[in-house]
Amino acid sequence: MGDSIQFVLNDQPVAVADVSPMTTLLDWLREHRGLKGTKEGCAEGDCGACTVVLELADGRREPINACIALLGQIDGAAVRTVEGLRGPEGAPHPVQLAMAEADATQCGFCTPGFVMSAYAFAAGGEAPELDTIHDALAGNLCRCTGYRPIVQAMAAIARLPIEPPARPQPRSASASFGAFHAPRSLSELLALREAHPDALLLAGATDLGLLASRSRKPPAILIHVAHVPELRMLQDGSNSVTIGAAVPYAEALPLLVAHFPALKSYLSRLGSRQIRTMGTLGGNIGTASPIGDMPPVLIALEASLSLASRRGTRRIPLEEFFVGYRKTALDADEVIASITLPKLRPHEVFFCDKLSKRRDQDISTVAAGYRLGLRDGKIEDVRVGFGGMAAMSKRARQVEQALKGEVFSAIAFEAAAAAVAEDFQPIDDWRGSAAYRLQAAANLLRRLYWRIAEPGSTVEVEAL
Predict the structure, then answer these.
(1) 106 and 123 inside one domain
(2) 34: left (phi > 0), else alpha (psi -120 to 50), else beta?
(3) Which of 5, 41, 402, 422 is the most exposed place for a label (fewest CB within 10 A)?
(4) What are the pLDDT digits (tens) for 39-96?
(5) Nearest to residue 352, comparing CAs of 460, 439, 245, 438?
(6) Residue 167, pLDDT above cutoff 80
(7) Please, which pLDDT band fits residue 168 given cuts at 50, 70 and 90?
(8) What pairing do the DSSP bridges indicate for beta strands 378-387 and 366-375?
(9) pLDDT in the model for residue 215
(10) Reduced to 3 states, what is the DSSP secondary structure of residue 452?
(11) Helix (H) or strand (E) run with residue 240 in it
């Protein structure tokens, strides 16, 4: 199998050489390590019963879903499970005590996952505000509906002093565990990509991890890109922001929100904290799902991609990257290296929306992004992207044409709402009918007018 997978588990070094790297972390913890506190509830990264915490070299503690994390991804990391929480002299950990004192358990099945999310929350030093607590718990489901005492416990442990974790020792050289390859440089990645054009590229595994967890059919060969420094850069330029394709949402979020404030509430609904710890912009784009949350927003922001191969690097507008249902312009020997977003100019505004059946942890029925340039009462420029309306995320060019050059008015936005049906012919599915999608998209454009015309009004409340 090649090199052993090495990481720190509950402060103890571990080397795994006899287990497939395609095994989920959850299965390994339970079946090979006997750590039964981490539970399987959904095998999809939705319920949080499998939550464990990554303890990062910079001191951060981030929750992840062990059910969709592959063992090969954990190489060089530090992981803590509920069994690894200890108080002074063997007493329960303060987070565990707070949960007990608040009577925050009922059947107990989900409790270890809640405890680990609470541990990460406490270590993060966040304020005990209700919105923040709800965001921290969005990836954990309680089937007994016992949320009130759990929230109470979370408020009690906010900003709790927690000892620094054991520091992991990441590899400096590439590693291969059978058919699981983990390059440590762009040149190594591109050589592997050229040698294995049919291999799947793995970033956070929030999508591909389902093949190993829910489907029990892990890929034949994987190339894990998360350790490639060139794909982990964050660059705040004078006129643009560039984000490496393998940067997790949790790391990219501060930079994105600083320049595009509307993304704060939008990204809080992109999965959960567990998903945002591992998931990446590059992965969300690369899967080319027509209901992916980020592509329509990035299209509106005029994003471009840097695609790299051993032949060189080329840049392509994101709107040209999608060529059909789950089909892209990526060549067999290429990888997505980075995403570049032009910053908003002083006269531009940007908003985005996500419609889904529930607020948290749900796939979009319709997603949208809008960037408008307004000057002297006119719409000087406009870009609108929609997801969930076609076989791929795409620009709404007829909507844009209805708005561009017009006086900023409700009449112009009514014309834009009427143009939605010229841009899209959506399908019916269980998330929403074609008629619903057309009506919803049109209403979002009407809502956009009032958001700009009356900032701070009730129309800015998130659509559900």
Answers:
(1) yes
(2) left
(3) 422
(4) 999 999 999 999 999 998 888 899 999 999 999 999 999 999 999 998 888 889 999 9
(5) 460
(6) no
(7) low
(8) antiparallel
(9) 76
(10) helix
(11) strand 240-244
Six-digit token string for 354: 């996500």
Site of tokens 């032949």: 311
Both tokens of residue 336?
A: 């997505």
What sign does the CA torsion over 339, 62, 228, 25 have?
Answer: negative
Are the beta carbons of 359 and 272 closer than 8 angstroms?
A: no
- The parent domain of residue 192 ranges over 175-228
Tokens read off for 274: 């567990």
> Domain with 98 in it: what CATH number?
3.10.20.30
Over residues 306-345, the pLDDT tens digits come to: 999 999 999 999 999 999 999 999 999 999 999 999 999 9
Burial of 97 (0-12, 13-18, 19+ CB in 10 A): middle
Task: With beta carbons less than 8 A apart as the criterion, state whether 181 and 192 touch.
Answer: yes
Cα 446 from Cα 434, distance rounded (Å): 19
The answer to whether 61 and 124 have CB atoms below 8 angstroms apart is yes
Residue 294 Cα distances to 329, 341, 367, 451, angstroms: 18, 12, 8, 21
Specify whether 51 is located in the same domain as 122: yes
Answer positive or negative: Cα dihedral of 200, 427, 438, 361: negative
Cβ-defined contacts of 415-423 (< 8 Å, 24+): 416/445, 417/442, 417/443, 417/445, 417/446, 418/442, 420/396, 420/445, 422/398, 423/386, 423/389, 423/394, 423/396, 423/397, 423/398, 423/399
Q: 3-class SS at 409?
A: coil
Residue keyed to tokens 């992207």: 385
Paired strand residues for 372: 349, 382
How far is 244 from 308, CA to CA, in rounded Å? 12
Section 12-30 average pLDDT: 94
Domain assignment present for 163: no
Q: How far separated are the first and last CA of the chain, in Å rounded? A: 47
Strand 200-202 relative to strand 222-224, pairing? parallel
Q: Are residues 304 and 208 in the same domain?
A: no
Same domain? 179 vs 260: no
Residue 180 and residue 222 in contact, taking contact as beta carbons nearer than 8 Å: yes
- Do 282 and 318 lie in one domain? The reply is yes
pLDDT value of residue 461: 41
> How many domains does one find in the chain?
3
Cβ contact 161:119 at 8 Å: no
**What are 401's two structure tokens?**
């044409």
pLDDT of residue 460: 46
Give the model confidence (pLDDT) of 340-389 as tens digits: 999 999 999 999 999 999 888 788 999 999 999 999 999 999 999 999 99
